[in-house]
Amino acid sequence: MLKILVIGLGYVGTANAVLLSQHNEVTCFDIDISKSKNLDNGISPIEDKEVTEYLSSKKLNLKTVDSYPTEIDNFDIVIIATPTNYDILTNKFDTSSIEQSLENIQKSNSNPTVIIRSTIPVGYVKKIQKKYNNFEIIFVPEFLREGRALKDSLYPSRIVIGSHSKKAKEFAKLLIDGSLDKNIHTIFTNSTEAESSKLFSNAYLAMRVTFFNELDTFAMARGLNTKEIIKSVSLDPRIGDFYNNPSFGYGGYCLPKDTKQLLANFDKVPQKIMEAIIESNVMRKDFIGLEIAKLKPKTVGVYKLIMKEGSDNIRESSMQDIMKRVKAKGIKVIVYEPLIKEKQFFNSEIYQDLELFKKDADLILCNRIHPDLKDVQDKIFTRDLFNED
Fold first, then answer.
1. Mean residue pLDDT across the chain
2. Based on the domain organization, do 27 and 161 belong to the same domain?
3. Could you read off the pLDDT of 107-149 as tens digits, one per residue?
4. Which residues pair with 7 in a beta bridge?
5. Out of 60, 72, 120, 254, which one is annotated catalytic?
6. Which pTM value belongs to this model?
7. What is the domain-level CATH number for residue 38?
Protein backbone atom coordinates (compact mmCIF):
# COMPACT_ATOMS: atom_id res chain seq x y z
CA MET A 1 0.00 0.00 0.00
CA LEU A 2 1.47 3.31 -1.11
CA LYS A 3 0.88 6.77 0.32
CA ILE A 4 -0.45 9.07 -2.38
CA LEU A 5 -1.17 12.80 -2.35
CA VAL A 6 -3.66 14.14 -4.90
CA ILE A 7 -3.57 17.90 -5.51
CA GLY A 8 -6.76 19.23 -7.10
CA LEU A 9 -10.29 17.86 -6.69
CA GLY A 10 -11.76 18.52 -10.10
CA TYR A 11 -12.90 15.74 -12.42
CA VAL A 12 -9.42 14.30 -12.88
CA GLY A 13 -8.20 14.57 -9.30
CA THR A 14 -11.40 13.22 -7.73
CA ALA A 15 -11.58 10.25 -10.11
CA ASN A 16 -7.91 9.42 -9.47
CA ALA A 17 -8.32 9.75 -5.72
CA VAL A 18 -11.31 7.39 -5.60
CA LEU A 19 -9.74 4.90 -8.00
CA LEU A 20 -6.40 4.67 -6.18
CA SER A 21 -7.85 4.74 -2.64
CA GLN A 22 -9.27 1.27 -3.19
CA HIS A 23 -5.79 -0.19 -2.65
CA ASN A 24 -3.67 2.71 -1.37
CA GLU A 25 -3.71 5.42 1.28
CA VAL A 26 -4.80 8.60 -0.51
CA THR A 27 -4.76 12.15 0.86
CA CYS A 28 -6.40 14.99 -1.11
CA PHE A 29 -5.85 18.72 -1.11
CA ASP A 30 -7.72 21.48 -2.95
CA ILE A 31 -7.63 25.23 -2.43
CA ASP A 32 -11.45 25.12 -2.45
CA ILE A 33 -12.11 23.90 1.10
CA SER A 34 -15.76 23.14 0.29
CA LYS A 35 -14.65 20.33 -2.04
CA SER A 36 -12.60 18.76 0.74
CA LYS A 37 -15.46 19.03 3.22
CA ASN A 38 -17.84 17.40 0.77
CA LEU A 39 -15.44 14.53 0.20
CA ASP A 40 -14.95 14.04 3.94
CA ASN A 41 -18.73 13.78 4.29
CA GLY A 42 -18.99 11.22 1.52
CA ILE A 43 -20.33 13.75 -0.98
CA SER A 44 -18.74 13.91 -4.40
CA PRO A 45 -17.14 17.32 -5.13
CA ILE A 46 -18.01 16.78 -8.81
CA GLU A 47 -21.13 15.69 -10.70
CA ASP A 48 -20.27 12.02 -11.30
CA LYS A 49 -22.59 9.05 -10.80
CA GLU A 50 -19.85 6.46 -10.19
CA VAL A 51 -17.95 8.68 -7.73
CA THR A 52 -21.14 9.08 -5.70
CA GLU A 53 -21.74 5.32 -5.75
CA TYR A 54 -18.17 4.46 -4.72
CA LEU A 55 -18.14 6.98 -1.88
CA SER A 56 -21.31 5.46 -0.45
CA SER A 57 -20.68 1.76 -1.05
CA LYS A 58 -16.93 1.05 -1.23
CA LYS A 59 -14.31 0.86 1.50
CA LEU A 60 -11.91 3.61 0.48
CA ASN A 61 -8.74 4.71 2.26
CA LEU A 62 -9.36 8.35 1.53
CA LYS A 63 -8.98 11.57 3.49
CA THR A 64 -8.49 15.29 2.87
CA VAL A 65 -6.41 18.08 4.39
CA ASP A 66 -7.35 21.77 4.62
CA SER A 67 -3.85 23.10 3.91
CA TYR A 68 -1.03 21.98 1.70
CA PRO A 69 0.82 19.14 3.48
CA THR A 70 4.27 20.14 4.69
CA GLU A 71 5.43 16.57 5.18
CA ILE A 72 5.65 15.76 1.47
CA ASP A 73 8.35 13.18 2.24
CA ASN A 74 5.62 10.97 3.73
CA PHE A 75 4.19 10.39 0.24
CA ASP A 76 5.45 7.91 -2.32
CA ILE A 77 3.52 9.58 -5.13
CA VAL A 78 2.18 13.11 -5.63
CA ILE A 79 -0.46 13.48 -8.34
CA ILE A 80 -0.96 17.00 -9.67
CA ALA A 81 -4.40 17.52 -11.21
CA THR A 82 -4.78 21.29 -11.03
CA PRO A 83 -6.42 23.48 -13.72
CA THR A 84 -4.30 24.75 -16.62
CA ASN A 85 -6.42 27.37 -18.32
CA TYR A 86 -5.41 28.76 -21.70
CA ASP A 87 -3.95 32.27 -21.46
CA ILE A 88 -4.79 34.27 -24.61
CA LEU A 89 -2.09 36.84 -23.77
CA THR A 90 0.76 34.30 -23.75
CA ASN A 91 -0.85 31.84 -26.22
CA LYS A 92 -0.23 28.88 -23.93
CA PHE A 93 -1.56 27.07 -20.89
CA ASP A 94 -1.19 28.77 -17.53
CA THR A 95 0.84 26.14 -15.70
CA SER A 96 1.46 28.25 -12.58
CA SER A 97 -0.64 25.94 -10.37
CA ILE A 98 1.59 23.00 -11.37
CA GLU A 99 4.76 24.98 -10.69
CA GLN A 100 3.46 26.04 -7.28
CA SER A 101 3.01 22.38 -6.36
CA LEU A 102 6.48 21.52 -7.69
CA GLU A 103 7.97 24.37 -5.65
CA ASN A 104 6.35 23.03 -2.48
CA ILE A 105 7.74 19.56 -3.16
CA GLN A 106 11.19 21.01 -3.88
CA LYS A 107 11.21 22.97 -0.61
CA SER A 108 10.35 19.86 1.36
CA ASN A 109 13.56 18.15 0.15
CA SER A 110 11.53 15.00 -0.46
CA ASN A 111 11.73 12.55 -3.32
CA PRO A 112 8.26 11.36 -4.31
CA THR A 113 7.35 10.34 -7.84
CA VAL A 114 5.42 13.29 -9.28
CA ILE A 115 2.64 12.44 -11.69
CA ILE A 116 1.20 15.34 -13.72
CA ARG A 117 -2.34 14.65 -14.92
CA SER A 118 -3.15 18.27 -15.77
CA THR A 119 -3.08 18.99 -19.50
CA ILE A 120 0.21 20.69 -20.43
CA PRO A 121 1.96 22.15 -23.51
CA VAL A 122 4.14 19.93 -25.69
CA GLY A 123 7.67 19.85 -24.28
CA TYR A 124 6.67 20.99 -20.79
CA VAL A 125 7.99 18.04 -18.73
CA LYS A 126 11.31 17.99 -20.57
CA LYS A 127 11.80 21.66 -19.67
CA ILE A 128 10.51 21.53 -16.11
CA GLN A 129 12.43 18.35 -15.18
CA LYS A 130 15.71 20.28 -15.60
CA LYS A 131 14.63 22.75 -12.92
CA TYR A 132 13.21 20.18 -10.49
CA ASN A 133 15.80 17.47 -10.88
CA ASN A 134 15.73 15.87 -7.42
CA PHE A 135 12.52 13.92 -8.15
CA GLU A 136 11.09 12.24 -11.23
CA ILE A 137 8.25 14.00 -13.04
CA ILE A 138 6.02 11.85 -15.24
CA PHE A 139 3.18 13.08 -17.43
CA VAL A 140 0.22 10.73 -17.58
CA PRO A 141 -2.52 12.15 -19.85
CA GLU A 142 -6.13 11.58 -18.88
CA PHE A 143 -8.91 10.77 -21.32
CA LEU A 144 -11.94 11.28 -19.10
CA ARG A 145 -15.42 12.53 -19.89
CA GLU A 146 -17.08 15.09 -17.65
CA GLY A 147 -19.70 13.34 -15.58
CA ARG A 148 -18.18 9.89 -16.28
CA ALA A 149 -14.63 10.45 -15.05
CA LEU A 150 -14.55 7.51 -12.64
CA LYS A 151 -16.22 5.15 -15.12
CA ASP A 152 -13.57 6.07 -17.69
CA SER A 153 -10.93 5.37 -15.03
CA LEU A 154 -12.47 2.00 -14.17
CA TYR A 155 -12.77 1.07 -17.86
CA PRO A 156 -10.04 3.13 -19.57
CA SER A 157 -9.78 3.19 -23.36
CA ARG A 158 -5.99 3.16 -22.91
CA ILE A 159 -3.29 4.14 -20.45
CA VAL A 160 -0.52 6.37 -21.75
CA ILE A 161 2.54 6.92 -19.55
CA GLY A 162 5.09 9.56 -20.54
CA SER A 163 8.14 7.67 -19.33
CA HIS A 164 9.87 4.28 -19.67
CA SER A 165 11.23 4.28 -16.10
CA LYS A 166 10.65 1.73 -13.36
CA LYS A 167 8.48 4.21 -11.43
CA ALA A 168 6.40 4.84 -14.55
CA LYS A 169 5.67 1.13 -14.87
CA GLU A 170 4.77 0.99 -11.17
CA PHE A 171 2.25 3.81 -11.59
CA ALA A 172 0.72 2.13 -14.62
CA LYS A 173 0.21 -0.98 -12.48
CA LEU A 174 -1.57 1.12 -9.83
CA LEU A 175 -4.04 2.38 -12.44
CA ILE A 176 -4.64 -1.14 -13.73
CA ASP A 177 -5.05 -2.55 -10.18
CA GLY A 178 -7.75 0.05 -9.48
CA SER A 179 -9.63 -0.57 -12.73
CA LEU A 180 -12.27 -3.19 -13.45
CA ASP A 181 -10.80 -3.99 -16.86
CA LYS A 182 -7.41 -5.69 -16.54
CA ASN A 183 -6.84 -6.01 -20.29
CA ILE A 184 -5.97 -2.38 -20.98
CA HIS A 185 -3.83 -1.10 -23.82
CA THR A 186 -0.87 0.47 -21.99
CA ILE A 187 1.62 2.58 -23.91
CA PHE A 188 4.92 3.87 -22.54
CA THR A 189 6.33 6.85 -24.44
CA ASN A 190 8.70 9.74 -23.93
CA SER A 191 7.12 12.73 -22.18
CA THR A 192 6.76 14.86 -25.32
CA GLU A 193 4.95 12.10 -27.20
CA ALA A 194 2.56 11.66 -24.26
CA GLU A 195 1.87 15.41 -24.18
CA SER A 196 1.22 15.38 -27.93
CA SER A 197 -1.10 12.38 -27.72
CA LYS A 198 -3.36 14.22 -25.29
CA LEU A 199 -3.64 17.37 -27.38
CA PHE A 200 -4.07 15.55 -30.69
CA SER A 201 -6.77 13.30 -29.18
CA ASN A 202 -8.85 16.29 -28.13
CA ALA A 203 -8.13 18.11 -31.39
CA TYR A 204 -9.50 15.12 -33.32
CA LEU A 205 -12.64 15.08 -31.18
CA ALA A 206 -13.08 18.81 -31.78
CA MET A 207 -12.59 18.22 -35.51
CA ARG A 208 -15.24 15.51 -35.53
CA VAL A 209 -17.69 17.79 -33.70
CA THR A 210 -17.07 20.62 -36.16
CA PHE A 211 -17.38 18.26 -39.16
CA PHE A 212 -20.88 17.11 -38.23
CA ASN A 213 -21.84 20.63 -37.21
CA GLU A 214 -20.76 21.93 -40.63
CA LEU A 215 -22.74 19.11 -42.23
CA ASP A 216 -25.75 20.26 -40.22
CA THR A 217 -25.15 23.91 -41.17
CA PHE A 218 -25.10 22.89 -44.85
CA ALA A 219 -28.32 20.88 -44.50
CA MET A 220 -30.13 23.66 -42.62
CA ALA A 221 -29.09 26.26 -45.19
CA ARG A 222 -30.23 24.02 -48.06
CA GLY A 223 -33.43 22.81 -46.41
CA LEU A 224 -32.19 19.21 -46.23
CA ASN A 225 -32.73 16.45 -43.65
CA THR A 226 -29.57 16.44 -41.54
CA LYS A 227 -30.45 13.22 -39.72
CA GLU A 228 -30.78 11.21 -42.93
CA ILE A 229 -27.45 12.49 -44.25
CA ILE A 230 -25.60 11.75 -41.00
CA LYS A 231 -27.04 8.23 -40.75
CA SER A 232 -26.00 7.50 -44.34
CA VAL A 233 -22.49 8.91 -43.85
CA SER A 234 -21.96 7.20 -40.48
CA LEU A 235 -22.80 3.70 -41.69
CA ASP A 236 -19.42 3.62 -43.39
CA PRO A 237 -17.38 1.60 -40.83
CA ARG A 238 -14.37 3.81 -41.47
CA ILE A 239 -16.41 6.75 -40.16
CA GLY A 240 -18.62 5.05 -37.56
CA ASP A 241 -22.08 5.76 -36.20
CA PHE A 242 -21.01 7.56 -33.02
CA TYR A 243 -19.97 11.00 -31.79
CA ASN A 244 -21.93 12.50 -34.68
CA ASN A 245 -24.76 14.38 -32.98
CA PRO A 246 -24.90 18.06 -34.01
CA SER A 247 -24.72 20.76 -31.35
CA PHE A 248 -24.39 24.50 -30.92
CA GLY A 249 -20.61 24.05 -31.08
CA TYR A 250 -17.97 22.41 -28.94
CA GLY A 251 -17.22 23.99 -25.60
CA GLY A 252 -16.44 23.01 -22.03
CA TYR A 253 -13.11 22.90 -20.26
CA CYS A 254 -10.96 20.73 -22.55
CA LEU A 255 -11.64 21.06 -26.27
CA PRO A 256 -11.47 24.88 -26.60
CA LYS A 257 -8.22 25.28 -24.68
CA ASP A 258 -6.52 22.13 -25.98
CA THR A 259 -7.10 23.00 -29.64
CA LYS A 260 -5.71 26.50 -29.04
CA GLN A 261 -2.66 25.12 -27.26
CA LEU A 262 -1.98 22.61 -30.02
CA LEU A 263 -2.27 25.38 -32.61
CA ALA A 264 0.28 27.40 -30.61
CA ASN A 265 2.61 24.37 -30.50
CA PHE A 266 2.42 24.23 -34.31
CA ASP A 267 4.48 27.45 -34.41
CA LYS A 268 6.57 27.39 -37.62
CA VAL A 269 5.14 23.97 -38.53
CA PRO A 270 2.86 23.93 -41.60
CA GLN A 271 -0.79 23.37 -40.70
CA LYS A 272 -4.31 24.19 -41.82
CA ILE A 273 -6.61 21.79 -39.95
CA MET A 274 -5.94 23.08 -36.42
CA GLU A 275 -6.71 26.66 -37.41
CA ALA A 276 -9.79 25.56 -39.36
CA ILE A 277 -11.22 23.63 -36.38
CA ILE A 278 -11.21 26.73 -34.20
CA GLU A 279 -12.59 28.99 -36.95
CA SER A 280 -15.31 26.46 -37.85
CA ASN A 281 -16.51 26.38 -34.25
CA VAL A 282 -16.83 30.18 -34.21
CA MET A 283 -18.71 30.18 -37.53
CA ARG A 284 -21.10 27.52 -36.24
CA LYS A 285 -22.09 29.72 -33.32
CA ASP A 286 -22.51 32.70 -35.66
CA PHE A 287 -24.80 30.62 -37.90
CA ILE A 288 -26.91 29.34 -35.01
CA GLY A 289 -27.29 32.90 -33.68
CA LEU A 290 -28.56 34.08 -37.06
CA GLU A 291 -31.00 31.16 -37.37
CA ILE A 292 -32.46 32.00 -33.96
CA ALA A 293 -32.80 35.69 -34.87
CA LYS A 294 -34.68 34.74 -38.09
CA LEU A 295 -37.47 33.29 -35.95
CA LYS A 296 -38.04 36.76 -34.44
CA PRO A 297 -38.63 35.69 -30.82
CA LYS A 298 -39.28 38.40 -28.25
CA THR A 299 -37.89 36.40 -25.34
CA VAL A 300 -35.40 33.54 -25.74
CA GLY A 301 -35.08 31.10 -22.87
CA VAL A 302 -31.80 29.27 -22.32
CA TYR A 303 -32.39 25.86 -20.77
CA LYS A 304 -29.20 25.16 -18.82
CA LEU A 305 -25.70 26.39 -19.57
CA ILE A 306 -23.99 23.08 -18.80
CA MET A 307 -22.38 21.31 -21.73
CA LYS A 308 -24.23 18.03 -21.35
CA GLU A 309 -26.48 16.05 -19.03
CA GLY A 310 -24.68 14.61 -16.01
CA SER A 311 -22.13 17.43 -15.92
CA ASP A 312 -21.81 20.49 -13.70
CA ASN A 313 -19.47 22.42 -15.97
CA ILE A 314 -20.59 25.70 -17.53
CA ARG A 315 -17.07 26.95 -18.29
CA GLU A 316 -16.77 28.09 -21.91
CA SER A 317 -20.03 26.35 -22.77
CA SER A 318 -21.19 26.96 -26.33
CA MET A 319 -24.55 28.11 -24.94
CA GLN A 320 -22.91 31.17 -23.43
CA ASP A 321 -21.60 32.19 -26.85
CA ILE A 322 -25.03 31.65 -28.40
CA MET A 323 -26.50 33.85 -25.67
CA LYS A 324 -24.11 36.69 -26.57
CA ARG A 325 -25.01 36.47 -30.25
CA VAL A 326 -28.76 36.46 -29.55
CA LYS A 327 -28.52 39.40 -27.15
CA ALA A 328 -26.45 41.32 -29.72
CA LYS A 329 -29.54 41.18 -31.95
CA GLY A 330 -31.52 43.03 -29.27
CA ILE A 331 -33.46 39.94 -28.17
CA LYS A 332 -34.23 39.44 -24.48
CA VAL A 333 -32.66 36.31 -22.96
CA ILE A 334 -33.72 34.53 -19.77
CA VAL A 335 -31.95 31.53 -18.23
CA TYR A 336 -32.93 28.41 -16.34
CA GLU A 337 -29.82 26.97 -14.70
CA PRO A 338 -30.13 25.34 -11.24
CA LEU A 339 -26.34 25.52 -10.79
CA ILE A 340 -26.45 29.32 -10.63
CA LYS A 341 -27.83 30.76 -7.41
CA GLU A 342 -27.45 34.42 -8.36
CA LYS A 343 -30.41 36.37 -9.75
CA GLN A 344 -28.63 37.29 -12.98
CA PHE A 345 -26.06 35.85 -15.37
CA PHE A 346 -24.41 38.44 -17.65
CA ASN A 347 -27.45 40.70 -17.19
CA SER A 348 -29.93 37.94 -18.05
CA GLU A 349 -32.50 36.99 -15.42
CA ILE A 350 -32.04 33.57 -13.78
CA TYR A 351 -35.24 31.60 -13.23
CA GLN A 352 -35.50 29.04 -10.44
CA ASP A 353 -39.09 28.17 -11.35
CA LEU A 354 -39.01 25.93 -14.43
CA GLU A 355 -42.73 26.26 -15.18
CA LEU A 356 -42.56 30.06 -15.10
CA PHE A 357 -39.45 29.93 -17.31
CA LYS A 358 -41.27 27.82 -19.91
CA LYS A 359 -44.24 30.19 -19.81
CA ASP A 360 -42.22 33.39 -20.25
CA ALA A 361 -39.97 32.16 -23.09
CA ASP A 362 -41.19 32.36 -26.70
CA LEU A 363 -38.31 30.14 -27.84
CA ILE A 364 -36.29 27.76 -25.66
CA LEU A 365 -32.71 26.89 -26.56
CA CYS A 366 -31.38 23.55 -25.38
CA ASN A 367 -28.09 22.02 -26.53
CA ARG A 368 -29.40 18.59 -25.55
CA ILE A 369 -33.10 17.67 -25.31
CA HIS A 370 -34.37 16.94 -21.80
CA PRO A 371 -37.65 15.39 -20.52
CA ASP A 372 -38.24 18.63 -18.58
CA LEU A 373 -39.26 20.20 -21.88
CA LYS A 374 -41.56 17.52 -23.28
CA ASP A 375 -44.64 19.71 -22.75
CA VAL A 376 -43.20 22.66 -24.74
CA GLN A 377 -41.90 20.90 -27.85
CA ASP A 378 -43.29 23.67 -30.06
CA LYS A 379 -40.99 26.20 -28.34
CA ILE A 380 -37.74 24.22 -28.51
CA PHE A 381 -34.78 25.17 -30.69
CA THR A 382 -32.06 22.50 -30.64
CA ARG A 383 -29.75 20.63 -32.99
CA ASP A 384 -29.87 17.48 -30.85
CA LEU A 385 -31.02 14.96 -33.47
CA PHE A 386 -30.14 11.71 -31.75
CA ASN A 387 -30.86 12.55 -28.10
CA GLU A 388 -27.32 11.74 -26.99
CA ASP A 389 -24.05 13.55 -26.28
1. 93
2. yes
3. 887 899 999 999 999 999 999 999 999 999 999 999 999 889 9
4. 29, 80
5. 254
6. 0.91
7. 3.40.50.720
